[in-house]
Design brief:
This protein has helices at residues 2-32, 80-88, 96-101, 114-117, 122-128, 138-142, 146-151, 156-178, 181-198, and strands spanning 38-44, 50-56, 105-107, 134-136. By secondary structure, the protein is mainly α. It is built from 9 helices and 4 strands, in the order H-E-E-H-H-E-H-H-E-H-H-H-H.
């Protein structure tokens, strides 16, 4: 209950506080390339419920773009605005909408696309999907430069499936087993510090 109250009040306050910034970002996105302000993609949430996540769009609209699960390095589809938004993680702030709606939490295992979730071991899947997915978690901090990491791999998709995803799942299971409100507040603080550092 306390976690959900924190989610509701913090997301509502964040959306109000950041509304002017979001307006500027929306205008920049629309001027930079044709297409919608938001990128929507199916993700798997609590108890396996599928929802459509919000992100500020960072790529040019192209057939099949919404189906791509990973982005590697300097993807040519990334717009000028998108490069900045991705580097600073500002594109992720649109997920405050998902938090307010109850599809996500401020802190929790990052939500994955259905076809990756289908490959989770059964016990891990049950554990990870027992809580709302979050905007940030320990794996988000550890793999903050995931795109660059995958760009160095010979086979980025295989590297994600066999190396990155299992590591993320281990961290997700640890988070679920040890989650506390104080721990969530600490992760939010670490995330804010990382965001500020990325813009310096």
């Amino acid at each position: 209950m306390a976690k959900r109250l924190l989610d509701v009040f913090a997301s509502a306050f964040g959306l109000l506080l950041l509304a002017p910034l979001f307006a500027v970002m929306a205008i920049w996105i629309r001027l930079d390339s044709p297409g919608p302000v938001f990128f929507r993609q199916e993700r798997v949430g609590r108890d396996g419920a599928v929802f459509r996540i919000h992100k500020f769009r960072t790529m040019r609209v192209a057939p099949g773009a919404a189906d791509a699960a990973i982005t590697v390095g300097a993807d040519p589809r990334i717009t000028n605005a998108g490069a900045f938004l991705r580097r600073t993680k500002l594109d992720e702030l649109a997920q405050l909408i998902d938090v307010l709606r109850g599809d996500m939490s401020l802190v929790g295992p990052r939500p994955e696309v259905p076809h990756y979730v289908a490959s989770y071991p059964a016990d891990v899947r049950a554990k990870v999907l027992s809580v709302r997915p979050g905007i940030t978690d320990p794996a988000s901090l550890q793999f903050r430069n995931e795109s660059e990491l995958l760009a160095r791999a010979v086979d980025p998709e295989r590297e994600y499936r066999e190396v990155v995803l299992p590591a993320k799942l281990r961290l997700a299971v640890e988070y679920v087993d040890q989650a506390t409100l104080a721990g969530d507040l600490r992760l939010i603080g670490l995330t804010l510090r990382a965001l500020i550092g990325s813009r310096q």
